[in-house]
Specification:
Elements: H1 4-9, H2 18-27, H3 30-38, H4 42-57, H5 64-77, H6 83-94, H7 98-115, H8 119-122, H9 127-133, H10 140-151, H11 158-167, H12 186-191, H13 214-232, E1 242-246, E2 251-254, H14 265-282, H15 284-291
Antiparallel strand pairs: 1-2
Helix pairs in contact: 2-5, 4-5, 4-15, 5-7, 7-9, 9-11, 10-11, 14-15
Amino acid sequence: MKNLLTMICGNDPAVRQPAQVIQEICRLSDDEIDGQMKAATEEQRNVIGVYVGVCVRGKDSLSTLQCGALFSMFHAATPELSRAKQIEIMREETGICRTQQYRCVGAFKCFGRILIPDPKLASCFVVEALKILGMECVSQAARDRAIELAQKGNAITKEVAISLKQQFPKALQEPSPPNDSILPPKDVRDAKRSDGDPPKASAKKIDARENPDETALAEIEERKATLAATKSQPKKALPNDSVVYQDNAVRITVSPVGGRKKVSPEDTCYALEQALEQHRLKYPVHSLAATTVPAYSMEDNSHV
C-alpha cells in the first residue's frame, strides 16, 4: 500500500501522475485515506490543494469519477475546513461549481472504486447517469441493479438511471389519511374524553394570503421605504480616513486609532504587510498557487 502523501509531495514525478494517484485512492478505503491525511503537515496539505486544483483544471482528460476521487482526497486532507469552505476553494481553483463538485464526489463514492479499475464496465455508464445514481436520495438497491445491468452489457443512460431511481425508492413514505373516514365515529371520540373536558372547538384555518393583515402590510411597506432611503444616502467617510487603494470592486482605507490624528507612511506599510500575511494564512492554497508552487503539466504530469 502506497502513501498518498509520498506520491504527491515526494520528489518522484513518475508516481505523481494523476492516473496513478487516482488508482491508489481507489485501492484505499475512506478510513485508510483519513488515516494517511491526518499525518499531513501544513505544507503537505497546501501542496495537495494545489495539486488537485491543477489536475482538475484539465478535467477534459479526467472523468467525473476521477475528479470525484481527487475532491474526496482534498476533503480528507483538510479536515480543519468546513465542507462549504472546501467547496469554495475548489470552485476558485478549478472553476467547477458547488453542485457539480457534490455530484462528482457522490458518483465516485458510489461507483468510483468499481468503475475506474474497469474501463470496459465504466464505458456502459453515461456521466449524467452516474451523477443521478450518486445522489443521496437514491437507494443502494438502484445502484446495485445498475451495476448488474452494465455487467450484462446494457447501457446505463440518464433515462435508465431515472427509471431505477423510481423503481427502487430509498424509503417508502406512509401515505397520510385522505379524510376522517378511518377515525372512530364522533360519538366514540367524545365518549373517550373525561366529563370535565368539554369538546374542543374546531379552529378554522386562515390563509394569510386570503386575509392579509393591513397593519402588518403597512409596517412592511414602511420598513421598505426606510431601507431604501438608507441605501440611497451617500456613505460618510470617517474623519482622518486615508484611501490607500481603490478599484471598481475594492477600496482600502486606513484610519488612525488610539487618539492619533493621522497615520504615518511607515505605520501604513506595516499594517498592510500584516493584513496580507493574515490573508495568506487564511487562504493558503490560493497564496501558494499564486506565488511559490510551479504548475503541473497534464500531458507529462511533470513540473513545467
